[in-house]
Amino acid sequence: MASPSIKVVDSLSLLSLKVAPNVFDLSSGMHHVSIRDQIVRAQLLVRDLLHADHELKELVIIGAGVAGMSAALTACELGIAKVVVLEASGEPFSLFKGLHTRHVGPFMYEWPSPFFNDQSYPAHKRTGWAASARSPLTWKADQPCSADQLATLLSESLQQRLSEVPATLMIGRRVARQWIKDEIEAFVAAETARHGALLGGNRLPPAHRIDLRKVKVWSDSPTRAMTVTPQYILLAAGMGKEDLQLVKTDARGRAYGGANPLCPPFWGADQLLDGASRDASTAVFGGGDGALQDVLRALTGRAHPLELLRELEAKPAVKRALRGKMDELLSLDRQARQLATWTSRSQHDYQQLDRACIRIARKLAKCRQMVRQIWLLIRRGRGCVTLVVMEAHFGKSYLLNRFLMHLFWACVRQKPASWSGRMGLDIRFRHRACNYTATSLGHCVQVLDVEAKTTTWLQADLVAVRYGINPESVPGLQLIQLGQQYSEHRTTLARVELPFVFETRS
């Protein structure tokens, strides 16, 4: 008797991204959130949906950012008959437009892998995937570009793709968030009833139909639909709002009810690169990527870390010293990333990686030429940058930011007499803000030493708060009420690393 055959299907994206019956979330609660990750995640989900449901004909996508438009273009390319994108703002990629102070690159943070120094996507001169790589959005860039420049590149790519894919895509703009929420809830209710009827062998109730007649259409939308009866809804409405509340509890741990500063969000214009900031006192709160980026920008005046690397390696002895550590750093990075897939979201995940970076940085700081190059990178000025970190080590951050931060700190702590006239750097681990007062001269923040239980006052002209996303603001959780247990299960699956590019099958 022949054993029954087992059909193996690609389903990781379906398992990790499903949040309700026939609803998948591309952006909420993600562990890997780069521009590149968003593109690949969207491609994989649409591919797997089509493999699982050959009858897929109508699809609704919430959000016209990188994830949403990647999903939409992929769906059109793969032959889905009707694709509708609903965007709350006025146009695709609006988050990045007009922002010149934040720089991005799809491979910048793959350092020390050999292909980190080319920011084109998906084709890349340092890899062998160019022939098979496929992306709905493509661009060429040697170096990281500003968010505004990226928006221009993405928009140009989108226009090109819209001229190539079938005219089955409608892009709605300035759609009311409450209307979107109501339609999603109605869709979920209808799909839940249909699934129940199917399991019970009963007649299927009608699917939910969305009336689009009052939806404004983006000027470059390929088509205009009056209604859509989606079989699936993909949420790509962003990661949520940042937690910009500097002080949460007072020195005794009680809820804080006092004032807090108004701080720009990560994707907002700031003054850290302004010339005047070299003579300013800057305080950065947080221990993740955003905080480390802001410290490096404020301290050096360089827009992104690859500028720092390039200038560091201008000195042959420094280049040799850094390159001599790249294999070890790459091994540490790979281990940390793979461990994160199989480990809970504890801050202790990063402790061993931090210790290894400190050890390497301190060895490099014994090189006189290294210290000299770091000195040259720090801006001339009377200012100081203070980083306040709640934990005893840095949190979730790319290795490039983590290592450079430890390298600067190790070199600064050598305290050579010749460093006078350069900006200062101070890092306070196991500290947190516990009180705040606005003054005529700027900001006055009371900082608690968590272990010593003592407080000091920190005067600052500029304050940056980088605590990450406020969990209560996550769009997916706002649009659909989820149980916490299921949310944690889904988020754990979403920790699995994504490939660098989506590859077509030969």
UniProtKB/TrEMBL annotation:
Annotated Pfam families: FAD_binding_2
Q: Which residues form the FAD-dependent oxidoreductase 2 FAD-binding domain?
A: 59-89
| SUPFAM superfamilies (alphabetical) | FAD/NAD(P)-binding domain (SSF51905)
User: Which GO molecular function entries does the Swiss-Prot or TrEMBL record give?
Assistant: oxidoreductase activity
* Keyword Flavoprotein applies: yes
Sorted alphabetically, which InterPro entries does this protein's record hold?
FAD-dep_OxRdtase_2_FAD-bd, FAD/NAD-bd_sf
Keyword Flavoprotein listed: yes
Q: Which UniProt keywords apply?
A: Flavoprotein, Oxidoreductase
Q: What protein is this chain from?
A: FAD-dependent oxidoreductase 2 FAD-binding domain-containing protein
Organism equals Pseudomonas vranovensis
Q: What is the lineage of its organism?
A: Bacteria, Pseudomonadati, Pseudomonadota, Gammaproteobacteria, Pseudomonadales
